[in-house]
Amino acid sequence: MTPLGIGLIGAGRMGAFHMESWERIEQARLIAVADPDERAARTRIARRPIDWYPDHRLLLECADVDAVCICAPSACHAEIALDAIAAGRHVLVEKPIATAMEDGLRMASAAHLAGVKLMVGHVERFNPAVGKLAELIARGAIGRVFRAHATRVGPLPARVRDTGVAIDLATHDLDIMQFVLGLDITSIYAQGSRCVHPSQEDMIACLLRFGDAGPWGLLDVNWLTPEKRRELTVIGEGGMLSASYLTQDVWLTESSGAPSGWSDLARIRGDAEGAAVRFALRRIEPLQAELEAFARCVLEDTPEPVSAQEGCRALAAALAVRDSAAHERPVTLLDTPLRRVDDLPAPPLMPVAA
Amino acid sequence: MTPLGIGLIGAGRMGAFHMESWERIEQARLIAVADPDERAARTRIARRPIDWYPDHRLLLECADVDAVCICAPSACHAEIALDAIAAGRHVLVEKPIATAMEDGLRMASAAHLAGVKLMVGHVERFNPAVGKLAELIARGAIGRVFRAHATRVGPLPARVRDTGVAIDLATHDLDIMQFVLGLDITSIYAQGSRCVHPSQEDMIACLLRFGDAGPWGLLDVNWLTPEKRRELTVIGEGGMLSASYLTQDVWLTESSGAPSGWSDLARIRGDAEGAAVRFALRRIEPLQAELEAFARCVLEDTPEPVSAQEGCRALAAALAVRDSAAHERPVTLLDTPLRRVDDLPAPPLMPVAA
Amino acid sequence: MTPLGIGLIGAGRMGAFHMESWERIEQARLIAVADPDERAARTRIARRPIDWYPDHRLLLECADVDAVCICAPSACHAEIALDAIAAGRHVLVEKPIATAMEDGLRMASAAHLAGVKLMVGHVERFNPAVGKLAELIARGAIGRVFRAHATRVGPLPARVRDTGVAIDLATHDLDIMQFVLGLDITSIYAQGSRCVHPSQEDMIACLLRFGDAGPWGLLDVNWLTPEKRRELTVIGEGGMLSASYLTQDVWLTESSGAPSGWSDLARIRGDAEGAAVRFALRRIEPLQAELEAFARCVLEDTPEPVSAQEGCRALAAALAVRDSAAHERPVTLLDTPLRRVDDLPAPPLMPVAA
Amino acid sequence: MTPLGIGLIGAGRMGAFHMESWERIEQARLIAVADPDERAARTRIARRPIDWYPDHRLLLECADVDAVCICAPSACHAEIALDAIAAGRHVLVEKPIATAMEDGLRMASAAHLAGVKLMVGHVERFNPAVGKLAELIARGAIGRVFRAHATRVGPLPARVRDTGVAIDLATHDLDIMQFVLGLDITSIYAQGSRCVHPSQEDMIACLLRFGDAGPWGLLDVNWLTPEKRRELTVIGEGGMLSASYLTQDVWLTESSGAPSGWSDLARIRGDAEGAAVRFALRRIEPLQAELEAFARCVLEDTPEPVSAQEGCRALAAALAVRDSAAHERPVTLLDTPLRRVDDLPAPPLMPVAA
Questions:
Q1: Helix (H, G, I), strand (E, B) or coil at C276
Q2: Backbone angles phi, psi at B330, to 5 degrees
Q3: Main-chain dihedrals φ then ψ at residue C128, nearest 5 degrees
Q4: Which residues of B touch C (CB under 8 A)?
Q5: pLDDT tens for residues C31-69?
Q6: ipTM exceeds 0.95, yes or no
Q7: Among residues A21, A196, A283, B302, which one has the fewest Cβ atoms lying within 10 Å of its Cβ?
Q8: Which H or E element spans position C46?
Q9: From CA B10, how far away is CA B160, in angstroms rounded?
Q10: CA-nearest residue of chain D to B255?
């Protein structure tokens, strides 16, 4: 089988990760990179036999490119993706799908009509810790779920950022929380500020609700905490599930446990403690898994593992977070029929009357 | 100096802690305990020469009792405290000061007029980790403060509870956060539910604002998490301060640090990391420190270390938390002139128009 | 049933712990304390109805004393115990049983002839984490055992010490390791020094062998490490068992696990990782459990839970540790028939020819 | 400046790490790889313009190769290195320098006479955590040093191993401990066994002595512990230094601290606790730093950062570990004048008479 010809658009930090990951994937071959900064691009390419183009349109003229990965700044996602779709190329666009709902919907619609794949790079979907958490919740390991709590904090990253934490960080967890709970977010109350970043909000905390009177959510993202943490914790009737996105550890701590018989120690450790289990999990590099999944869905013509609709759903939630934080009011997300593109409504945000 | 004669009202779990702590305090002597359950009371008393009374009114007739500690259920605090004040006794009432604002205000007023001490047992004020955190913030160790985050979660405690987590747990942190930041809470948005408790809310998460456009707050309390945690973390311009209420560790992690030169490790540890310091702190048992402070303010006739006004302020915030959670709307706390009792306004809760 | 009358000999820090623990035990009553320092003793006694004696011989004249706890300095254990046995009293002597083998053997023999109980206070035997570890090893949870590793380090304690770390700390683990492995120590190589202590060795590390070509042992004790740790880890064919004596957590980490599929993370986390389990354990205060067990063996006339023979075995090992460290040579412990007192041989230490 | 031409001998797991690291180094270029397994080699090379040779002798005929990295099995190090030296090439040989002392000494001597560089790849020397530890000890951060404790344990790695843990793991720490303490090892007592490995010892624990009555050492290495740990802890008069080789964290915990005023908590946390500091350290990938250092010493004709003599010293210690473990006796290392090759004595191992 001829390997899939891949074109990479954007050779910044994210693009560099793509470049290294594609090298390890047998069924595809990275053959071209587009980036206005030639020097940066050539440094990334190093001694690999990969062509450089100053513009994504030139790259799209290259006949061997079957599919493109868009790692350009988020604000350019829509334009580049629409060009690639128009040129009949399959597209893997880094998250967020776009920076405006109408752009995301337009992209979804265009890909649908052109019959090409449009996958959104929500890389945490390919984190085995997330998969394990979703599986455990689905099979009732902690019974009825009460709350999901996501933490994605750390120092300001070195890479370029044209968006704030709502779009850059929160989209990850807004997508993952909906995915592992199997429920859509229905309402959001967020607070946040630009604390030290020159132009973007850099700290946001949100309270969420999933489904109709379903579990609560707590989301805490920032670029201020001096120690990097990426965690998801879900509390339910039977105990607590915790996953570290970074180390891919997944824990189950049971609620019902032996009551303590030592009062002094109980002041520190609690009046009862259940058993805890860390699962044996095969760790994998999520980005490599994502790229493999993209290549597979193109080669086998199967549905995208993360669809444009799901990308739009995460974007809608991220925009609602910003809206709520900006206006200090709860925001409701309509349960839009996002599954079918043609029916997609106008922007799904709506202020709630208190 | 004759030691202070102490009467203890309520011999449940909290009362038992008081009993043991008073034994270690030289300037006071526990001489009487009132509790309707004679058997329980006598078990707690064991072989100590302490009298038992079935009713707090009988205890108040005992001439040697100079001051009382109220460890009865929260709903009885007001009635007992008012009786004790009427009988001319100094009062240490466990937190919350009462379960209704008007009761708290009435107690404050009565003590003021009677010229007796009325102290509220916000025990975490006497936690040396809290004192260190407050000192570090005050002297600018992390510069401008952006957010405080309090976590008070763990399994359902074995002791009797006549109140939910808003009153039982959140009051601690609502008081401490205002204390360490030196600012009043101005608005609250809370969500929460009764998940497994037979009658009370057992999980609440709140977003707070301190002062006028001051720092944000995040408060997470429940009786569901299977592992006990009691922590306060404050993020500011220069770094992060963290305190564990349980182990009394206080950490400062600096924001500005060495940028990482190893990309693979940076994916786990972040792109930069500042230095971290755990301070050498003299650990003390907070309840014993609280009781000593109470004895001292009575014996030396100095202001109460935690005043009735501060107890009312914490109660007002806890009630606002419940109100917000019940009605799913943001609630504003008026900046009431709580410092002078006579001017205290009607209940300080008010729904905000979105 | 009349409660057992207890006399406490030695009111130092250890004696104070005994005093508090006996208060919580229903089937016994602490009625007398002997200590030459009247002021210290009376402070410990506080308001409890307990008599004070300046000398243990006077206490032994007290007819209500059925049994004594010896918390005096280790060097006095033998003399006091022999006096108590001669007076027909049951004896709980703090570990080490004595500071010389001949003393320990004499005590064992005297108690045997007098028909009184002589129990040694190896308190960690009553630590539920130790019991769980022993049970898991016995039922093959990690298969064939390769090594036990005990760590008992921390800052110099505040209490009085008339012995070095070999006797004061290592005796705990020398006893426990033999207990959980079900094998006697056969040889010891130790190194250690007096580093900062005015008169005693304060750091020792030993390599041990259990049984005949059985598992290895590693023992690390000191009063120098600035952070307190008390841990026991056992590695076997199927995985690792770890217990914290302090928090009473017991962990099982399995050896066979999922091989890692992510090379960069594997550099930090290893090429494979098995599942890990923390057991739900009912925590208890080990000293209280020890005192209860002592009272029970007296009241029910059952064998001592920790016999004088076991106390002698731990002492023999501790003395071998000192001998090896002093002479920088391996030392062999003869497999003495310690089980029957009358056959006990002369000191069981013997230098090995290299 | 023409970049240094590098030839890599051995394309196993270690060779693959070299290959990736050389790609990131500007002043050198990897141009040829020798490995008998063509398929494996070509997979590692992927699309890079690098030549493959089935035999290191063919690679050495390649005129553009200025220097070679030897990543072949340890038993082949000597033969390959001597061939490379004879061909006038600079040599970086992975640790251990060889598997027999006479080989190591022969290599050192040959390189000396040929005037080429011979560096040994003790990669932990380039770990910034090690450098920081050495610097802190040198400048007296913990005063007089009492003991160093190295732990290098974890599950059996996936890579091929032709040697046991003494040579494969312990050489790292035997070198690093001597380096950070600035003292040679003078005596060793080791115990260990082959537990599950088909042919090699897989668990060793050693007690060491540094210098003449200098600090003690404790070294614990195995392929059995299910969780990977790589740590070095040094205790001294003023406190404890700890480094994690994996995360490159370095901690200083001070000995003198605030005495605890809370007895119940002190049972868990100790009677006193000093301040602790984690230093802000610029993390780097040690292998890349090693390769850069090698390239620099060749290009600038400066002494090798890790000399053949130091490689021999580490090997001598590792062989002594095996000797001691095999014969269960203490072994003394003569303080050989290892600094000048020509004077190097016969194997420096000697059994001690007990």
A1: strand
A2: -70, 145
A3: -60, -25
A4: 23, 46-49, 264-265, 267-268
A5: 999 999 999 999 999 889 999 999 999 999 999 999 999
A6: no
A7: B302
A8: none
A9: 12
A10: D280
